[in-house]
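Continuing the batch. This is chain 6 of the set; chains 1 through 5 are on the previous pages. Same settings as before, nothing changed between runs. Recording input and output for traceability.
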Amino acid sequence: MLDSLPDQFHALVTGASGALGQAFIQHLAQDPRCASVQGLHRQSHPALDFADEDGIAGAARQLAAGPPLHLIINAAGLLHRADFMPEKRLDDMHYAQLRATFEANTFGPALLLRHFTPLLADGRAIMAMLSARVGSIGDNRLGGWYSYRASKAALNMLVKTAAIEVARSKPASILVALHPGTVASPLSQPFRSAGRARPAHDAARDMLQVLDTLQPQDSGSFRAYDGSCLPW
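Output for chain 6:
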């Protein structure tokens, strides 16, 4: 349970059709202190498609008619798809992959920060963006995965910068970049690390526990699923 949020809090999960998005919704739906949890994705109502800038703004306008949100979690992300895999070397990079990866991992979340932070309740409220340890510049020792690494590093900067601005009007708010670890999902399935992947249900539970412990002074930080701070 998220004991740090007000009783009967309202939550939103974007990227709700994925493994982690569904797991977050299941946990929140089972929390007796959560009054409502809504999931948004391309086929939801309202729909949320990171390729549609006007649609992101429109979804925010529709949600503004409802109660203020105490928790927003963006669980959407892209590592690979049918026509590309993470780059192993510079020669593998191409514009279409860069564009698609940044649209899903950086541009869409940037617009969520723009249009959805005004939906946060006054008082304690949390907005978490799922990032990735491989987006850490300081922790990069293997190279490769150019598009994904760069898109997540850019997302981390967006979260840090937005946290500074949002704190001026909502000083009790918390914006955080959150690393879920390796999770059993279609995203991790093609890789050797999939054998060490945790169930999405467990990863979502751990991340909710981390969010419950964060304080306003932690806003703008980059955290792992065990609560540790990750290097930028």
